[in-house]
Design goal:
This protein has about 270 residues and is an all-alpha fold. It has one domain. Strands 1-2 form a two-stranded antiparallel sheet. The protein is globular and about 50 Å long. The two termini are about 20 Å apart. The mean pLDDT is about 80.
Length: about 270
């Protein structure tokens, strides 16, 4: 597969938009990237099952770069809860290792698409309902954070996202301010991405049918183009996040997630070719 001008333009546009969303919503952009990359690969003669897996893996790899750009902007505003990052990171690495090295390679692409749709729709519903947590609820202790981090890392590895679709609602449920939850989620994207990407490279190194210039399940040309453009927009997204009212931020998050869940549900329910 060659990177023709139209494909390059599509990838640049995707990178700019997802970079902005990485800063705005703390989701690493993966929630948007996976459906679009699946579409691009599927329409360029990559099998449906492999297209979903490569889209997930390539999306996760771009988060290595967008998370760094986004978290720097949030940190300057003092919004990142580094105590939560330190508490959740060990569990995230453990969960990501199980996902990238084990479950991801075993599960079918259609199954992964359905898992993606289900968890994204659940996250959107939580945002729409806007249920208020009990005022007395606080962040759990060290063991609880490791457990929560493991779930975040594992599920993120299955769907190729930076974890914001779980970590933002989790932190909001623990009475962490929404802007702090978004900023902290952006910081968590880096350990999530690094741990999972290593698993994708190892588990996909001998898979047949991959396009040229692939490393495991990673589609390297797309990774380079998207990462180069997305890092430019992440700081602007972070700036917008701090200027928006919390309820508007939640609505943007929820509407976006519902649309992405619908597309991946459609992909997951398609009969095998």
């Amino acid at each position: 597969m060659t990177l023709e001008p139209l494909l390059i333009a599509e990838l640049i546009a995707l990178g700019l938009f997802t970079g902005f969303l990485a800063g705005l919503l703390g989701i690493g952009g993966g929630m948007l990237m996976v459906p679009f990359l699946t579409f691009m690969l599927s329409h360029r003669n990559v099998g449906a099952d492999l297209a979903v897996k490569m889209a997930i893996a390539t999306s996760m790899a771009t988060i290595v770069f967008t998370s760094l750009s986004s978290v720097r902007a949030h940190h300057r505003r003092g919004a990142v809860r580094w105590d939560l990052v330190r508490g959740l990171a060990p569990g995230i690495v453990i969960g990501a290792a199980f996902a990238g090295l084990g479950a991801f390679a075993v599960l079918k692409g259609a199954t992964l698409a359905l898992v993606f749709a289900g968890f994204v729709a659940f996250s959107a519903t939580q945002m729409i309902l806007n249920r208020k947590p009990a005022p007395s609820r606080t962040v759990p202790g060290p063991a609880g954070l490791v457990g929560a981090g493991s779930a975040i890392g594992f599920l993120s590895g299955l769907v190729g996202a930076g974890g914001g679709f779980i970590s933002v609602p989790f932190m909001a449920w623990c009475n962490v301010a929404m802007h702090q939850a978004v900023a902290t989620s952006a910081a968590l994207g880096f350990p999530i991405a690094v741990a999972n990407v290593l698993g994708y490279i190892v588990s996909g190194h001998d898979i047949a049918g991959r396009p040229a210039a692939s490393l495991g399940y990673l589609w390297l040309p797309a990774l380079v183009v998207i990462a180069s453009s997305s890092v430019l927009m992440a700081p602007l997204g972070a700036r917008a996040a701090h200027a928006m009212p919390v309820h508007h931020l939640k609505r943007v998050f929820a509407v976006l997630l519902y649309g992405l869940a619908a597309y991946m549900l459609y992909k997951g329910l398609q009969p095998p070719a």
